[in-house]
Every structure is written in structure tokens, then in C-alpha cells.
Design goal:
Elements (H helix, E strand, L loop, with lengths): L1 H34 L6 E5 L6 H15 L7 E5 L6 H10 L6 E5 L2 H7 L12 E17 L7 H10 L5 E4 L6 H12 L8 E4 L3 H9 L5 E5 L4 H5 L3 E6 L25 E9 L4 H16 L1 H10 L2 E5 L1 H21 L5
Parallel strand pairs: 1-2, 1-3, 5-6, 5-7
Antiparallel strand pairs: 3-9, 4-7, 4-8, 4-9, 4-10
Helix pairs in contact: 2-10
């Protein structure tokens, strides 16, 4: 009996050890599998046409991550224009919610498009995983170099006198970011925002082409995207939406407030992943994007594009988005555009 008991106990111990070994082996395999990410090329989506702020941001991020070898896998940029980002987000939130090999850049439109009444998107930042905020930019009101409008006040007076005669364009849909940047100073100047003749294009590059081609009298766009046109003498920047004047090429451009329109608007930009991104993959991108924000190569890219650095990690970025969402809702409500 004693011998049988010994054999039985030995068997139990063997099974227990085998089970422990199996658990450790499974855990090791799982950790190894998680550590292998990324195993294939990664796509960074700019939900707009080429030439705008999202496009430039996506290309700068992928360029620096590759050059610094922070990410070993190939990274490509894909432009997905349509509806100021709503077309892409609808597809992403439903078809790519587990696809950690596709990330995207965005800014206030991810909030605005979800909160506005007209052309409302059922999807918002809650249908994604916010990974990091990287930059801050501002809006700019721009005209052709030979425009009769020499400052913001003269343009606003023309709109006030006859709104139908002044075409304002932007690279996003009505009620979206460029539209808000365009009508904010008008609203603060005492003009009915609904009377402003606004024409939308898919991306800042197309809006700029419309301006230079004579199809718009002025455009609202990202301040960081106008440098090359300004240096080439093709445009005049009437005003910026910052609280204070900027440095660099736009140092002489007055703010909205300086010209009688008591308003300002910040354009943050950040990186988002799919809603059902795994914890390990989220941590991977948090580490990579933080390292990117601190790298000298990124700081040079910021300077070259006229962007200001403002890094927030995933937790802080998500909290910030919640706060910004309240601001956007208040703004849209004041303009009669909240859903």
C-alpha cells in the first residue's frame, strides 16, 4: 500500500510539475508573440487628400520613426479623403477595430464631426485608442497676394456688407474645423455665421489650390501649411487663431483678437489606434511615440513645418480629449450647429 501511495504521489507531483511547466511555457509563448509586434508593415492614415496638416503630420511621423530606426518595420502613409475624416473613421471603427497595423492622425475634427448637427458622424474618439498628442498648431485666414483684402477687418466688412459675394473655402466639411476657424472671427465680429458662404474641399491642399485658382476669395487653413506659399509670394496671411503672435514666418501676422474678433482656436494633432488594440501593442506605441517626441530629428521636423511640440501620453491625451469635447460642444451650440 505504501508503495502504491508513493507511486500515486509521484504521479500527482509529475502532473503538477508538467502543468506548471505548461503554464510557464504558454506564458513564455504568449510574451514572445506579443514582443514580436510589429511583424509586418504598418500603415499611417491621413484621412484627407495630400498637402494638408494631417498628410504632413503622418508623413513626418513615419519619416522620423524610420530614419531613427525607432520602428524597424516599413511604414507607409495612406490618404483616405472624404467628409473631413468621417468616411475613413466609419470604416476604421467598424472594419479595423482590431487592426493594430493601421494607425491614423487626427485633430479637432474627430470631436467636431461627432458633435455637430449637420453631416454628423456616429463615430468619435471613443471608437479609437488615443495614443499620443504630438503637436499644436493654429488656424490661419489666407488670401491671394493680390487680394483687395489687406487685413482681417476689411474681409469681415466685405462679408458683412454682402455675404453672397465673398467665397470662403476650407479643407473640411461644413461644421468641421476649417469651417469653424473661418466663421469664428465672423461670428465674433457680429456676422450671422449661417450667412457666410463656405465651400469645402477634401484637404488643405485642395483648398489652397482653389484660392490660387481664383475659386475662393479667402480660405481658412492650418497656419503651419502656408509657409512655402508665403515665401513664394503667392499669398497673404490676414490673421491667425492663436492667443498671441507666432514666431518664424508668421511673426508679423496679427491674431483674430488684435483685429476686433475676440476668438482663438487651437489645432492639436495626435495619433490614434484601433479601439480593441491590445495592452502590449498600446504600450509599444506609447514608448515609440514618446521617444519620437524627444528625438532631435523630430524637433527639426517640427521647426521645418512650423509646428509647436506638445506631447501628451495616452492617458493624458484621452483626458484632454474629454475636456476639449466639452469646449467643442459649447462652441457649436453658440453657433447653432450642435446636434
Amino acid at each position: 500500500m505504501r508503495k502504491m501511495a508513493t507511486v500515486f504521489l509521484s504521479g500527482v507531483l509529475a502532473l503538477g510539475l508538467a502543468a506548471c511547466g505548461g503554464t510557464k511555457e504558454q506564458a513564455a509563448t504568449k510574451n514572445e508573440r506579443a514582443s514580436e509586434y510589429p511583424e509586418k508593415p504598418i500603415t499611417m492614415v491621413a484621412p484627407s487628400g495630400a498637402g494638408g496638416g494631417w498628410d504632413k503630420t503622418a508623413r513626418s511621423i513615419t519619416k522620423v520613426l524610420a530614419e531613427t530606426k525607432l520602428v524597424d518595420q516599413t511604414m507607409t502613409v495612406e490618404n483616405k479623403p472624404g467628409g473631413g475624416g468621417t468616411v475613413f473613421l466609419a470604416e476604421y471603427a467598424t472594419q479595423d477595430k482590431k487592426n493594430s497595423y493601421k494607425l491614423f492622425v487626427n485633430s479637432p475634427p474627430i470631436l467636431i464631426n461627432h458633435d455637430k448637427k449637420e453631416g454628423n458622424s456616429p463615430y468619435g474618439y471613443g471608437d479609437t485608442t488615443p495614443l499620443a498628442q504630438l503637436t499644436t498648431d493654429y488656424g490661419a485666414i489666407v488670401v491671394k497676394a493680390d487680394s483687395p483684402y489687406k487685413d482681417l477687418k476689411s474681409a469681415l466688412e466685405a462679408i458683412k456688407a454682402n455675404p453672397a459675394k465673398v467665397t470662403v473655402a476650407g479643407g473640411s466639411a461644413p461644421g468641421s474645423m476649417d469651417h469653424l476657424v473661418a466663421i469664428l472671427p465672423a461670428y465674433k465680429y457680429g456676422i450671422d455665421p449661417k450667412s457666410v458662404k463656405y465651400v469645402s474641399y477634401d484637404g488643405g491642399g485642395e483648398a489652397m489650390a482653389a484660392l490660387l485658382g481664383g475659386n475662393a476669395d479667402l480660405i481658412a487653413t492650418d497656419a503651419s501649411s502656408v509657409g512655402e506659399y508665403l515665401k513664394a509670394g503667392k499669398i497673404r496671411v490676414l490673421a491667425i487663431s492663436a492667443k498671441e503672435r507666432l514666431s518664424g514666418d508668421l511673426k508679423d501676422v496679427p491674431t483674430f483678437k488684435e483685429q476686433g474678433a475676440d476668438a482663438d482656436f487651437t489645432i492639436w494633432r495626435g495619433v490614434f489606434g484601433p479601439k480593441e488594440m491590445t495592452a502590449d501593442t498600446k504600450q509599444y506605441w506609447e514608448e515609440k511615440l514618446k521617444a519620437l517626441s524627444e528625438h532631435e530629428a523630430w524637433k527639426k521636423e517640427l521647426q521645418a513645418n512650423g509646428w509647436e511640440s506638445e506631447y501628451k501620453n495616452a492617458a493624458d491625451f484621452k483626458k484632454f480629449l474629454g475636456e476639449q469635447d466639452k469646449v467643442v460642444k459649447e462652441l457649436l451650440s453658440a453657433l447653432g450647429m450642435e446636434k
